[in-house]
Amino acid sequence: MSWLDPDDDLDDEFEDFDESSIRVRPNPKANRPRTKRRPAHEDAEIGRVLGVDRGRYAVMIDEGTDDERTITTTRARELRRTPIVTGDLARVVGDTTGDVGTLARIVGIVERTSLLRRSADDTDLIERVVVANADQMLIVVAAADPEPRPRLVDRYLVAALDAGIRPLLVVTKTDLQDPTAFLAHFEGLDLRVFTSAREEMPVDEIGEALIGHSTVFVGHSGVGKSTLVNALVPSADRATGHVNQVTGRGRHTSSSTVSLRYQSEHGTGWVIDTPGVRSFGLGHVDPANILAAFTELAAIAEDCPRGCTHLTDAPDCALIEAAERGELSPAELSRLDSLQRLLQTFADKAEQTPGR
Ligand code: GDP
Ligand code: ZN
Fold first, then answer.
1. 170 C-alpha vs ligand 1 centroid, how far in Å?
2. Which of 79, 218, 257, 351 could be 75's S-S partner, Cβ–Cβ 3.0 to 4.6 Å?
3. Of the bound ligands, which one is closest to the alpha carbon of residue 218?
4. Tens-digit pLDDT string for the chain (356 aa)
5. Per the CATH hierarchy, to which homologous superfamily does domain 45-109 belong?
6. pTM score, two decimals?
């Protein structure tokens, strides 16, 4: 254990600790009689976890005030099984001055509004928590170099919608390739799409969409995600994200995810960059939620027989019948193919692991 716990004797205060019971109290100095054993630290301050690096959490305290500062924290021993990730709102006690050499302690996490998870691959049931409390996901793909893969984007969409996060799409490198054919796959979806070229990055348009939100950026390596992040957040914070990206890429995902503040004259928002996320396994997703992510197809599938698998051999499947009658647009046909491939992956997995 590399972390230091200066306050071991406080441990018994955590007996009744329960993550779900933590709320931001409107008046932390409420005039309550002091009992000897408090259920949790009532004097804890709430801060935003900006990043995690080798057991140390950078936490922003007093966000948006003149006292705003980023402090270094460690987590209380009681929380060692609780994943704490970028975007979490942490309850912090101890020295929260942020002075050099100080180390405060995270004693709890405020109930999350969303949790983006992934698995290493589709057969991996062990999920990894990527980001907490994001309400948007900006999916970054390149029009070329690397070649865009609609089915990879569909995976991101499933992960986002499974987590209750609104997806947005940006296609970069449109100077290299016209993205029309690629984008046809998503036609008719309720999905906001931006396009970006080397000399024409839609910084203001994307920035506008970031204001008031916490947006997690995802994309395969090489698509130009860092270029985009740097254009959106040209502040000192970005250096941290950059360094972490270089050292952490593909290895320590959790240690390389960082929150960066987008700021414009119109407002602010949070950009959460996830440099380490290469694959987006969906092993943790309930297969029933996959169809739901294909919104336009889910509507048609309401006419499917009960328990329909929607696989290519499914009898009386409303999706297949609609396709055969020529009622699906090219985009819908392409998405149906993507859906069936994803569902097949899960069907194969269920066969391999009958105990699931
Ligand atoms: P990341 O791995 O997704 O973070 O990608 P980077 O931001 O590091 O970009 C990968 C490469 O693509 C770099 O050489 C960038 O200069 C280049 N690149 C980024 N955006 C564009 C673009 O819009 N057009 C072109 N032609 N190249 C781009
Ligand atoms: Zn069906």
1. 13
2. 79
3. 1
4. 323 233 322 222 222 233 333 333 344 444 444 444 444 577 899 999 999 888 899 999 999 999 999 999 999 988 888 889 999 999 999 999 999 999 999 999 999 999 998 777 666 666 677 899 999 999 999 999 999 999 889 888 988 988 889 999 999 999 999 999 999 998 878 899 999 999 999 999 999 999 999 999 998 888 999 899 989 998 634 333 333 444 444 333 333 688 999 999 999 999 998 875 666 778 778 777 889 889 899 999 999 999 999 999 999 999 999 999 999 999 999 999 999 988 887 777 667 655 44
5. Nucleic acid-binding proteins (2.40.50.140)
6. 0.79
User: Under CATH, what is the fold of the domain 287-352?
Assistant: Ribonucleotide Reductase Protein R1; domain 1 (1.10.40)
Q: Which two tokens stand for residue 306?
A: 């009960």
Instruction: Looking at the CA of 141, name the nearest ligand.
Output: 1
CATH label, 115-273, candidates 3.40.50.150, 3.30.565.10, 3.30.43.10, 3.40.50.300: 3.40.50.300
User: Which ligand 1 atom sits closest to the C-alpha of 196?
Assistant: 23
The pick from 176, 218, 227, 273 for probing ligand 1's pocket by mutation, whose C-beta has the most ligand atoms within 8 angstroms, reads 227
The CATH 2.40.50.140 portion of the chain extends over: 45-109
Name every residue whose Cβ is closer than 8 Å to that of residue 333 and which is 6 or more positions away in sequence. 323
Per-residue buried b or exposed e for 101-128, using 16+ beta carbons within 10 Å of the residue's own CB? eeebbbbbbbebebbbbbbeebebeebb
Ligand 1 centroid distance, CA of 219 (Å): 12
150-162 vs 330-352: helix crossing angle, rounded to 10: 70
Domain ranges in the chain with CATH number 1.10.40: 287-352
Q: Where in the chain is the domain with CATH 3.40.50.300?
A: 115-273
Ligand 1 centre to CA of 146 (Å) is 10
